Amino acid sequence: MTILQRNKTRATVLAAVLLATSAFWAPATFAQDSKPLVIARNIDLNSLDPHRAFCDTCQIYNSSVYESLLTLDKDNKPIPLLASKWEGNADQSSFTFTLDPAAKFSDGSPVEAKDVKWSWERLKNLKGSASFLMDNVASIETPDAHTVVVKMVAPSSEFLNIAAAPYAAVVNSKVASEAGAKADADASTTDNAEAWFLAHSAGSAPFVLKSYEPNSELRLARNDKYWRTAPALSEVVIRQTKDAVAQAQMLQSGTADIAMQIDPDTAKTMTGSDVKIETVPSYNFIYVALSPGAKANKVPLTPEVREAISLGLDRPSILDFTIGSEGQLISAPIPLGFPGGSGFEAQPYDVAKAKELLAKAGHADGFEMEAAFPGMNVYGVDLSLLMQKVQQDLAKINIKLDLQPIPFANWRERVNGDGIPMTAVFYAPDYYGTSQYVDYFAMTKGSPWSRRAGAERDPSVLNPKEADIYKAALAASGDEAAKLWHQAGEEMIKDRIILPLISPNLVLAYKSDVKGVRYSACCNLPLAELSH
Predict the structure, then answer these.
(1) Comparing C-alpha atoms, which of 70, 86, 94, 83 is closest to residue 12?
(2) Over 90: is that where the pLDDT of 9 sits?
(3) Tens digits of residue pLDDT in 397-417
(4) Confidence of residue 531 (pLDDT cuts 50, 70, 90)
(5) What is the DSSP code string of 88-138?
(6) For residue range 95-114, what is the model confidence (pLDDT) as tens digits?
(7) Which are the contacts of 17, defined by CB distance < 8 A and separation ≥ 6?
């Protein structure tokens, strides 16, 4: 999907304009289907609690069963959902949302401002994976049943995009509270509703939870009380199917209508006029990361050494070895198509200069380096094969990698503990906004990757410029903000801590009679738009 760079506005967004644009989102009126639509994918759910959920399947589930105040159209522009209009003040430190009075939860009760306040405070106070989305929220006021006023700690030009994220789900606060859900400051220790959410839902979206069998299937049913146009599908079943080959077999045999994680090689083997294959650019990327503060380092990973490692990576060859034409190179840890994510120069490959830098750093004969990484296939790329190619490249500059593929849980423990000298891993966006990449990858004090890079043991990795650019970008808008995000990307390239390599394309594979399949930055796969 091609993204059009959006222009954020500081002025009030007129209700009439917003209501008109909502037609881009609302599904057309379909003849309703009684046959379930079956999706084959590896179900990576960590929770069905919308404020604890944090995964690719979670994005599909949350956006199908719960609604946020806004959503994104096909060009990634915010449009109305639960909110019929909104406005921001001049410095983007306060946002006022007006709820659509027609909005109703699946039990028929109205969606009110108190539900938004409760939901967003719960998301923040659960202190889970997606809680960071509300870190910059200072207060939420509800002057009446249909008005929500959000005050920010600091200006945030991206808050409207956060309000469109599936993790910013609005929950029926009365129903959830009766089930043990809490939104108070101590919610992380007093909330006991997660088990209830495994069998129940309390949202306002086109579908409701019908049943969930871990490691087997997730089943959704049409919300018969949905307040907008009813979805065409009466039921959607996401069936646990771990690998691409099995997913392809289900699609070709007719036991699945959509296969969601088909890699390019598997796609090439699929035949039949009743199967449709589309390949679109994705926002996902795979990167190598270095940790100067890792306890296992055999030599100091100084800026010269890190630059040498980057120069030793033959990125075009890595792309050709892993996915070939089914993806593209990426230079900065900002997805291509996100604000500020385009226009970076290709990263050079220069063995002679790499050796020169290593000699200057006192390592003319090279050195050994531990490289532990998750032993998994992601976005059609086997990380073990990828790292074997990286190992071959770096051997040419006399760096010997000790490859250690390990389970993801073990990797996470090690990278967040003593650190790993070199690793390889992946990233997919949590919402459509560039600030999340600076939050995560920049060498600012306390960021996830500054900690993993060992900033406490080696403060030299910190880059104060990035914090200043980040603050300025959130206070800016439109082209000005995009230029600042681009500057942040340039600084992250100079850090030579995060070394992005490739952005694999996404394969959409589905039966030819299925309509409405598309890749969404908001919702991954918008189920409400599907029919067959």
Answers:
(1) 86
(2) no
(3) 999 999 999 998 899 999 999
(4) very high
(5) E-TTSSEEEEEE-TT-B-TTSPBP-HHHHHHHHHHHHHTT-TTGGGGTTEE
(6) 999 999 999 999 999 999 99
(7) none
* Spatial distance between the Cα atoms of 274 and 282, rounded to a whole number of angstroms: 25
Q: Which residue, among 44, 67, 55, has the nearest Cα to 201 in the 3D structure?
A: 67
Burial 494-520 (b: 16+ CB within 10 A, else e): ebbbbbbbbbbbbbbbbbeebebbebb
d(CA 249, CA 487): 46
Residue 17 has pLDDT above 80, yes or no: no
Q: Which residue has the tokens 């490692």?
A: 309
At 455-472, the pLDDT tens digits run 999 999 999 999 999 999
Q: How far is CA 230 from CA 29, 68, 210, 221, in A?
A: 8, 17, 17, 12
Distance of alpha carbon 84 from alpha carbon 102, whole angstroms: 10
DSSP tag of 459? G
The closest alpha carbon to 238, from 57, 65, 39, belongs to 39
Rounded Cα gap, residues 90 and 10, in angstroms: 5
Q: How many angstroms separate the CA atoms of 353 and 152, rounded?
A: 47
Q: Is residue 351 within 8 Å of residue 17, measured between CB atoms?
A: no
Radius of gyration of the chain (CA): 23
**E strand or H helix that includes residue 280:** strand 275-280
Find, among 58, 1, 38, the residue nearest to 260 by Cα. Answer: 38
Report angle CA 184, 185, 191 to the nearest 5 degrees: 55
Cα separation of the two ends of the chain: 22
**Phi-psi domain of 478 (left: phi exceeds 0; alpha: psi -120 through 50; beta: other):** left
Helix (H) or strand (E) holding 341: none
Scored b (16 or more CB within 10 A) or e, 131-156 reads bbbbebbeebebeeebbbebebeebb
pLDDT digits (tens, 9 = 90+) for 224-254: 999 999 999 999 999 999 889 999 999 999 9
What backbone phi and psi angles, to 5 degrees, belong to 321? -70, -35
- Say which residues have a Cβ less than 8 Å from residue 466's Cβ, sequence separation at least 6: 438, 442, 443, 444, 488, 491, 492
Give bridge partners of residue 218 from the DSSP assignment.
212, 238
Q: Which residues contact 325 (CB under 8 A, 6 or more apart)?
A: none
Taking CA atoms, 289 is separated from 301, 333, 382, 414, 421, in Å, by: 12, 11, 17, 14, 8
Phi, psi of 374 (to 5 degrees): -65, 130
CB 419 within 8 A of CB 293: yes
Cα dihedral value 348, 352, 358, 359, nearest 10 = -160
Residue 479 in 3-state DSSP? helix
Beta bridge partners of 289: 423, 498
